[in-house]
């Protein structure tokens, strides 16, 4: 049976491990059909457009090589590096957690707020929202301005709650997206604190990719 | 454990049976946490705004009565009757298959085409797309113009393929939504024929509702 | 001669009396062609989506029964409950004071501010603005947060002036809509205080409905 | 009592006579409060942007001179020449029949079609629709391509029906605007033939201006 | 060889002199193909819509008389008075510095801020942005609120820096337009102070007009 | 003096030679300040998203190495590969001919048509139009569907005229962009045949970059 290739498009093994833990935890029955990849030559984190562009090339190469064995691909970075190039290469479904998380949020409301790791990511993210046709959903994006490796810890938790609360109260968001693959573990806690649905991009992308793997007609 | 209440907001038991078959087929492990309801006093089908308005009131009543036992609600009609009223009543998640299917389609592309049962539904649908903030995604909606009870049969199959092909070739759709709960069984076949991802609203809504049931912080 | 049916879609007779006073005051020559209805089984006020959905069903029933005698219908509630269902039932014109008041405001400027009774109405109103295609006109909506039965009194006057001033100065509104049928009596005073055109939905809807009654080709 | 100044911003007396007949016919009780002006130095018709610009200057001069005696102004040309300049000059309401007719159409539907006299007017009109913030309402504009002085006759009638039918069937319009002050007499007949509400700009503008004259707080 | 007619559509000779100095300084090789005109009968400055409308008529007259000798026209006022009328008159290119400066800014970013001379200009400018189809680019416009004849001096410099900084920091602008022909001399200094590209409308319009003069196929 | 680095982000030397000929022909006085680069490791042409992503990385590397010597950079490919990454690297201006050509077109009109080399480029282009905030300007894009190396020859000329005519007559374009760096030589001829302003992206980008090189405050 063909596998779901879940690709962390940076070179950080701990990030891949976090993604694996999230994915296996959410869909344990599918665990043995999941393959996880770390792109060894990619930047350690995707924090600017240059990183995203480099990851895009490596991701496309990975998809090209894995295509024969894969039933679906999931790009596990909120910036979706290589999404459209990968779709040119394979006839299997390719899902990006960024596009998928915006889509998932749209099921809960029409005013979406995004928590970013860094203020420097915001303009890049908005270009992506525009490119996928969902710019008008996003009523605000605010940054916690912590390093990527802090994105799952205690300091991060407090900052994410603070930022998500501002998105709710100042920007009128009715659903929140955690704009980084590394914040997955915080989802339930943020949701409980802020009182709005909170979308974890890894979970959102995984749901779409798993559905495609098991139900798609493989167009 | 709280249940997922899946509500067919019309009074047609065969439609409920179809929804049940689809839902149980997609998520068998969750079958014993699903409760299916048919709204006995509702119209036999939701084919105009008056039907949708009547169904909305009955759906809200159902949600009010079932709230103590439900962990999530799924409104299994593409027009999402009663969606916003139900959200006022319960603190559990309420998902509409119409909003959820537009959202699901957005994970695959930014040009969405919708297959309608009847041309008379199209203006009503577009008002709903606008209300949920996703009007700009929909590049076209075309109708098969068959009766609701024909929406799963052979004639319907040929018409849906014809209409979906027109959405792809004339309107430039890159993803198709089957705009009726009764077309679920056709999804894979249409996807295979047309070569685009095809979203079944029941499946799309079920995925969101199931995720909320099992993972949400119950905000 | 056929009549103009002016329907208060809640069960509050004082609200109907206010609407009658406004309508007869504005168009005395047409007074004997006006019929006023109160929907006895409807909620006492339309303050949430559930109320609006219930009123919609009753309004459609009223239109069905009155259709033979009516030359035009006016739905006298800013949320326009039952507007589209009524248009399915009758070939006579059906005007909603919500849609009509947005339209009237558009004759004065492209930046419209709305005074709401309650903050809880705002999201519901915005869904309606989107559905009628005029979402982009509304630059702000702010609530006085008083009970419906206070909406015409002294406390209300001061709050409406305060809120309308904020719409003018903070949101840049160049025309104001009083977002409730019960504020009609305040219109001239607010207009004088705030220095912007102020639209009363009852007056706006009445003007359209009366024009249709007397001039339409009854399409 | 102050008067309603209805200004035909071209130099054609027959056009002014038509406007007067329409206005007095619609609001006979207000006839003695109406003053009609023809701008003697203006072009004979407003058929291009240059004409509109020249009329704008003359209209502003007229408003400046008449301001002491006027309670409201109505600019009786679909291009609304001088609308914004006039609003700078006087504190009395200034209504343009172009802006007012778009606004009136918005009370009936969110898909508006416009019948133009000439294809050369269409780009100019669309600039005006954008400037007043209602561009997104207009789903199509089609021209009868007849001379201005033919705009009320038999040939015009057949052409207007043909063009309005195309707006309905090809562009999906649900309400029609007659995009010229000279087509007023055709309104009811077109409405009857095409089966959609048809807005006459003179009537639409007159309704707004009369309401302002009699009810406004004279902000 | 045909000339580039650069028209200052107000009657202020010092403004024309400033425009001439800017234009000759930017394109000295083209200096002997430039003709500068001051519209003697126009207002001394274009500070409201009435001024702009009057200038529009005089500008169109100038274009009509100069057409035989001109290879291109440049309207050197940010409000582009007479732009569309002039394009009806001549087959030579007609460029407005307002439209051209918005276009130039779009080469640097999608979030444009405009420095206005006066707050009273802002609504008029936004109508023009909408009419040229670029409304969505402008994230903010703020005024220095000085007289036109102060627009190039020391007081102006400090105010422009203050206002441009607010456009950058509060409105998120990534490119600034100096919304008046009289601020040309300040461009480099503002750019250096604010750290964003700053567009001078005269330079932007001149670049387009010069390109058209020398390279266009004279359509 | 710092140079203008004009980068052909593919590995085809003949394309670079064409770009050089165009650039030197347009701005001969600046010829000795122009440096031309071909990215040897890049694809031979940018015909899909994968090519564009690979070119983006190489372009960013080039900018990093050349930054000390460059006063401005011009990316000479309509897809603007590496545009945003390059802007992260250097404080010198970076101009993309794609963004610049859309911007240039906006100086002539608000309805832009694009001639593409291949139908497969169109979806990718539209994502870029959205990302730069100018999606709403483009009323149509149509492809000549010839190979890149045919894009300047006789067959191409006839096809470009055919396609540009369709953009004018069917899509209502009032300005045309040649959506490929290789069509530069055809510009004047297409403009003459079609009777609309025609924008060559190389010329448009060069104009912006040269202006930045010589006049910018080097922010």
From TrEMBL, chains A, B, C, D, E, F:
Give the domain of life.
Answer: Bacteria
For this protein, the record's InterPro entries field holds: Asp/Glu/hydantoin_racemase (IPR015942), Hydantoin_racemase-like (IPR052186), Iso_Racemase_Enz_sf (IPR053714)
Example of a GO MF term = amino-acid racemase activity
What's this protein's family per the entry?
Belongs to the HyuE racemase family.
Name under which the protein is recorded = Asp/Glu racemase
Species name for this entry?
A: Sphingobium psychrophilum
């Amino acid at each position: 049976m063909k596998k779901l290739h879940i690709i962390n498009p940076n070179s950080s093994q701990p990030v891949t491990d976090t993604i694996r833990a999230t994915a296996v935890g959410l869909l344990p029955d599918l665990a043995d059909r999941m393959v996880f990849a770390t792109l060894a030559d990619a930047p350690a984190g995707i924090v600017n457009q240059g990183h995203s562009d480099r990851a895009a090339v490596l991701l496309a190469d990975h998809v090209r090589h894995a295509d024969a064995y894969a039933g679906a691909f999931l790009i596990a970075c909120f910036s979706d590096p290589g999404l459209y190039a990968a779709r040119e290469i394979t006839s299997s479904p390719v899902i990006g957690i960024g596009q998928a998380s915006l889509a998932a949020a749209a099921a809960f409301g029409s005013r979406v707020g995004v928590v970013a790791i860094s203020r420097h990511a915001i303009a890049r993210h908005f270009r992506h929202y525009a490119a996928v046709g969902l710019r008008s959903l996003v009523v605000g994006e605010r940054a916690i301005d912590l390093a990527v490796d802090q994105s799952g810890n205690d300091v991060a938790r407090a900052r994410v709650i603070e930022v998500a609360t501002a998105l709710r109260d100042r920007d009128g968001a009715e659903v929140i997206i955690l704009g980084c693959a590394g914040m997955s573990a915080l989802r339930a806690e943020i949701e409980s604190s802020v009182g709005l649905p909170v979308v974890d991009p890894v979970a959102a992308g995984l749901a779409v990719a798993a559905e495609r793997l098991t139900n798609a007609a493989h167009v």
